[in-house]
Request: fold
Amino acid sequence: MSCLICQKPTTSFNYGILSCNACKIFFRRVILGKPVAKCSHTASVPLTCRFCRLKKCIESGMSFQSRDIQSDCATLTKWINNLKVLYAHRKLLILNCRFDGDPTIEELAALPGPLIFQSRPKHYKMGILEWGVLIALSTIDYFKKFNFLNLLELKDQVILIQQSFSDFDTLSGSFKAVELKKAEFLNPDGTDIFLKMDSGVCQVLENNIRCKLVGRMCELKITLEEFLLLTAVFLCNPALSDLSSSAKSILSTYQRVYTSVLLHYCMMTHQQNGTTRFTDLLSLFHSVKIAHQEIRTHYYFCIIQKPNLPFRNMFAHEF
Ligand SMILES: [Zn+2]
Ligand SMILES: [Zn+2]
Reply:
């Protein structure tokens, strides 16, 4: 019998499949680890290329269960720290950068490396629309560092980015308010997230968008670790429409892994109330979808009043 990934002789089962010890260790180290550089091999070479090897592991059916992490606190800590590093980088971009240009999601997904931001002069005044663009682009830059995104075909990457970045922005903006102990979601410089319209847009709707999700996250007292794991669970969503079957399978594997990690984390931090905590956190998925609908409705109200509102290519799919 031989390892399904590297073909070396083995008789052991690891993470659900026949695999050698070296491939087992590789998988554990890499699946949620630091970004693995995407290769351009047309035929898979799992023996010499880390990217091909990771892809082969997932295609062969390797996956984590909660019990695989239970005895492995060091790996769990490493994975969470990895998310923290990526998220801290996103924060730095938002605090210090601006972005020139008007790329489409296709162009952003196809970029082989990270996005190029320009540094922002100290007293530069950001407009409301410019904040929206910068935040969205820093989110896309964050997404591009996830190994599972790079494992997808370009077409699937576009679908995933399009259907996920604004929800992440809403969750992240609301989480920021929770961290600052504020009741509402504002821009990073404390300005309102909405453009002022001459005749105003429904106040109730605006207040819902600013406060409802923040209120729910505040009630839950969500922590940074929970926020990062939860948004990773939401991000690798195999149920998005129009994904290819290979994308669905990669995303299912990753969603199972992140879900197991989040559940394990909740059990560790909340002991016998761990599963309740886990369910409460997952319920934020519904809350953010409602917020998304409200934001779209708000946008339509604005467009009716100001048909010439500057429009960015990256938001084209929304409307
Ligand atoms: Zn192997
Ligand atoms: Zn390769």
User: Anything to note?
Assistant: The two ends are 54 Å apart (CA to CA). Strands lie at 13-14, 17-18, 97-98, 118-119. The domain at 74-318 is CATH 1.10.565.10 (Retinoid X Receptor).
